[in-house]
Amino acid sequence: QVQLVESGGGLVQAGGSLRLSCAVSGSIFGVNTMGWYRQPPGKERELVATVSGGGKPKYADSVKGRFTISRDNAKNTVNLQMNSLKVEDTAVYYCNVRQVFSGDNYWGQGTQITVSS
């Protein structure tokens, strides 16, 4: 009943920018956070950024000052603006919705971001 669909992945040169979007369908009840995770080649999945229902963002240290997360509750979307991209940002990026009281998680299918030097 809940589905997350990501868009905006692709190939970009170092120093460039990309914008990811995630559309959420289905019913999400209660307080929730939306966010983005990524999995670089050969590494574990890691947190990139989250945003609360009230719009309060949190970021991994590695992306602070470069990435901006936002959500539109009316449109049920979460976005990630990525600026000043680095080669080490190369990863599969996953959209996430987490219900903070139950702990339930919902995931998108992932989208590939490749940053070339």
Question: How would you characterize the overall build of this protein?
Answer:
There is one protein chain. The chain is mainly β. It has strands spanning 3-7, 10-13, 18-25, 32-39, 46-51, 57-59, 67-72, 77-82, 91-99, 105-107, 111-116. The strands form two sheets. Strands 2, 4, 5, 6, 9, 10 and 11 form a seven-stranded mixed sheet that branches. It has a four-stranded antiparallel sheet with strand order 1-3-8-7, with no helix packed on it. The radius of gyration is 14 Å and the shape is globular.
Keywords:
11 strands, four-stranded antiparallel beta sheet, mainly beta
Architecture blueprint of SSEs:
Blueprint: E1 3-7, E2 10-13, E3 18-25, E4 32-39, E5 46-51, E6 57-59, E7 67-72, E8 77-82, E9 91-99, E10 105-107, E11 111-116
Parallel strand pairs: 2-11
Antiparallel strand pairs: 1-3, 3-8, 4-5, 4-9, 5-6, 7-8, 9-10, 9-11
| Count of DSSP strands | 11
Separation of the first and last Cα atoms: 41 Å
- Report the helical percentage: under 10%
Describe the biggest sheet? 7 strands, mixed
Strand content: over 45%
Q: Which stretches are low in confidence, meaning pLDDT under 50 for 5 or more residues running?
A: none
What is the overall pLDDT average? 95
Short description:
With 117 residues, the protein is mostly beta strands.
